[in-house]
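Sanity check. The docking grid for nicotinamide-adenine-dinucleotide depends on where the pocket ends up, so I'm generating a full predicted complex first rather than guessing from homology. Inputs follow.
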Amino acid sequence: MSPTNSSPVRIGLVREQRPGERRVALIPSDIRRLSAKAAVLVEREAGREAGFPDDAYIDAGARVTSRDDVIAGSELLVKIRPPEDPQALRPGSIVISLGGRDGDLAGALRARSVIHLGLELLPRTARAQSMDVLSSQAAIAGYVAVLEGARVLDVLLPMMTTAAGSIRPAKMIVLGAGVAGLQAIATARRLGAITHGFDVREAAREQVESLGARFVFPKVELAPAEAAGGYAAEQSADQQARLRRALIEHLAPMQLIVASAQIPGTPAPLLIDEETIAALQPGTVIVDLAAESGGNCALTRPDELVITSGGIRILGPTNMPSAAATDASRFFSGNIRALLDHLIGDDGRLQLEGDDPIVVALLAGQTP
Ligand code: NAD
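Predicted complex below; grid placement will be based on this.
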């Protein structure tokens, strides 16, 4: 697909509307770097909550205007969250955002003749790594999860000695040692905790151990656990249940549990049920990073702090990266700039044709 004239593609950047979403999809320095290829329209205050004021966008060469003007005047819209109101989009335009696995959204956008490039669908290849928003945002989520968990804990993470005596370091474990989990281990270790990690993918063992954490592998038969693209494969309900029972002895001594086990496109695997919770020590904190896709813990409630009668505290954040909105936006924007650089030729034309694997994967969400 190419614009009909030879002027650079017009990109629109809108302010996120989901409550609590403070990030912005493009920051001024990346707009400046794209200026040879694209003209950018920015909705007023799009970056304010992430620390990027309108003046910085104007200095970078963008035109700052109303949301309606941005939507009406751009061929390609970029945002973080899936479009909140598909009916408001300009027919024939292209949207780059999350939401690539949402079939209802795909239907609504097709009906509006809007092409959606869903960021979850990027292939996990070396070429696409610089565009991978899931990885960049997961790394931030893992870091913030440990800080949030430490804030709610009544014990300290590091060993500490004072004239009043000594305290031992806290024990923490990550369930699901992917990008977020590994960053959580690295963060907790820097803060002085004794760290552990568990994952169904055997490949995670080396990564966990290379961070100085202990890899926990419960004695239970699991299905081959590596699927395409480095993701995990789903376990059967029976295997999941046996895994939960086998994990209990490993979870019982922990003070901080960061749960980040996910399988793309499916509900998060249940790793902590009520029987497990009953075996934990009072005061244990669980940060369930899988809350948005159903949670790894049975008692997680999205965006709430649950305190059980046994004194276990469960946090279920659904948008952890937004807590570090400036740097999360920096990373997200860097990913989007890399993607736009790939999609827009030096002549300022969008190239969505051909057999480019990145384009093919991104467009796959459009197929009914
Ligand atoms: P993810 O967010 O889909 O899942 C998080 C973790 O949960 C994964 O490690 C997964 O194995 C684990 N998990 C799933 N079911 C589980 C269960 N029942 N019990 C315990 N753990 C379970 O994955 P992710 O963090 O995005 O990435 C996973 C892997 O892919 C990582 O090894 C990462 O290095 C790799 N990766 C590769 C690329 C690339 O090559 N471009 C990009 C990003 C990630």
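Relevant for the grid: The mean pLDDT is 94.
Also worth noting: The two ends are 20 Å apart (CA to CA).
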